[in-house]
Write a structure and sequence with these properties.
Order of helices and strands: HEEEHEHEEHE
Number of strands: 7
Strand content: 25-35%
Distance between the termini: 23 Å
Shape: globular
Strand order of the largest sheet: 1-2-3-4-7-5-6
Mean pLDDT: 91
Helix content: 25-40%
Largest sheet: 7 strands, mixed
Length: 143
């Protein structure tokens, strides 16, 4: 499952220490903007892989393309000495529900205005619009 080309491009980007700091990656089912970033998380500066502007072609949505991409990103980030992955500015209501479920399970941490929330419980049942307006629409997954 997943987009083999997109996953291979992501893996190569993460593994290549000489690659550009950021780029758009393309596959057969969509594209994603990726960045090697330094962010202040958990009380220290950390090297992360950011995923942003994720676009899966409509006919492939709901087929596990993103989940496969996330798994590759997280696995490769951890293997290559990154502290984790960061998904920024989620602006899709269905997609944000996926991350809220992950926060509830403990897989993801919710970020509000670039700060990890130690207790996101007050936001977990909010509407999509409120989460976006409050700046609670980015998520962090540690290695």
């Amino acid at each position: 499952m997943g987009d083999k080309l997109l996953n291979e491009n992501l893996k190569a980007f993460i593994e290549d220490s000489m690659s550009a700091r950021n780029t758009h990656l393309y596959g057969n089912t969509g594209r994603v903007y990726v960045r090697k970033s330094m962010r202040y998380v958990g009380g220290k500066m950390s090297k992360l892989i950011d995923l942003a502007n994720i676009s899966i072609d409509e006919q492939y949505q709901g087929q596990g393309i993103y989940k496969s991409l996330e798994k590759i990103a997280h696995t490769e980030a951890c293997k290559n000495n990154f502290a984790g992955i960061y998904v920024e500015s989620v602006l899709n209501p269905q997609f944000i529900k996926y991350f809220i479920r992950g926060v509830k399970k403990g897989d993801w941490k919710m970020v509000k205005n670039n700060r990890i929330l130690s207790d996101p419980s007050e936001y977990l049942d909010e509407s999509f619009e409120t989460l976006v307006l409050e700046g609670c629409n980015s998520f962090f997954k540690t290695c």
